[in-house]
Write a structure and sequence with these properties.
Strand content: 25-35%
Order of helices and strands: HHEEEEE
CATH architecture: Single Sheet
Number of strands: 5
CATH topology: N-terminal domain of TfIIb
Number of domains: 1
Bound molecules: zinc ion
Distance between the termini: 22 Å
CATH class: Mainly Beta
Structural class: alpha+beta
Shape: globular
Radius of gyration: 10 Å
Length: 60
């Protein structure tokens, strides 16, 4: 299930927001996660719903 492009447009990396960076996210090539290029964290997308939890994000 793909993520809504409009949702992707407004979502920001919570870790970067904490640290006053913009934290734009991009969809990973596999389509199953969102990646933050600034802090190199990947957030899982489960059934179209991104899990925006820093503690559950994985580095890439
Ligand atoms: Zn980030």
């Amino acid at each position: 299930m793909a993520i809504d492009p409009e949702l992707l447009e407004i979502l920001r990396c919570p870790k970067c927001q904490e640290e006053k960076r913009e934290g734009r996210l991009v969809l990973a090539p596999a389509g199953d996660s969102l990646e933050c290029g600034a802090c190199r964290l990947r957030y899982r997308v489960s059934e179209g719903i991104p899990e925006m939890v820093v503690d559950e994000a994985t580095p890439f």
